[in-house]
TrEMBL record:
Keywords: Cytoplasm, Hydrolase, Nucleotide metabolism. GO terms for cellular component: cytoplasm. GO terms for molecular function: nucleoside triphosphate diphosphatase activity. It comes from Nonomuraea longispora. This is Nucleoside triphosphate pyrophosphatase. Transmembrane segments: none annotated. It comes from the Bacteria. It is found in: Cytoplasm.
Length: 193
């Protein structure tokens, strides 16, 4: 059994399109209660906390916890809390390059063994006009997303390119996840439906 410790519809859709059919159990972890020395470290701390919260209630299965954060100038940017914050974030992102870091943690609930790693993808943002930024924020999409953007939704119009794993920008790196499964002694192909 594969368990996704996340409410992210993008993560779930990516796993399903890649042949898995995970059960979803949302961790309920309060992300604001955690801190770390860098955005990458914070994404890993949060991924572990989410996976551990879900795995603690299970006797079996591989539990996947993830957390994505946009890093710009060394600072972490998660989901904006308000439309005003999303507007300000896009004024900051416009024409810049950031790093989308996603912490991944996989726990074998039966043995308690866990493995974890961070995937990083460089994101080059375009230069949307103030009117385009306002329309994007008004759509509501940026409010539910790390860094206030999506690459597969309306935000894709404003991303000029990426360097690295496309799936990581959606919230989960399939190649990294395969490596983590292998570290625990599992072949991802054994879980294909």
């Amino acid at each position: 059994m594969i368990v996704l410790a996340s409410a992210s519809s993008a993560r779930l859709a990516l796993l399903r399109s890649a042949g898995l059919d995970p059960k979803v159990i949302v961790s309920g972890v309060d992300e604001e209660a955690y801190s770390a020395y860098s955005p990458a470290a914070l994404s890993l701390v949060l991924a572990k906390a989410k996976a551990e919260a879900v795995a603690s209630g299970l006797d079996e299965g591989l539990v996947i916890g993830c957390d994505s954060i946009l890093e710009l100038d060394g600072r972490p940017y998660g989901k904006p809390a308000t439309p005003e914050e999303a507007l300000e974030r896009w004024r900051l992102l416009r024409g810049r390059t950031g790093r989308l870091v996603t912490g991944h943690c996989v726990i074998d609930a039966a043995s308690g063994r866990q493995v974890a790693e961070v995937a990083t993808t460089v994101v080059h943002f375009g230069q949307p006009s103030p009117e385009e930024i306002a329309a994007y924020v008004e759509s509501g999409e940026p409010l539910d997303l790390a860094g206030a953007f999506s690459i597969e939704g309306r935000g894709g119009w404003f991303v000029e390119g990426i360097e690295g794993d496309h799936g990581n920008v959606l919230g989960i790196s399939l190649p990294l996840l395969r490596d983590l499964f292998a570290e625990l002694g599992y072949a991802v192909t054994a879980f294909w439906r």
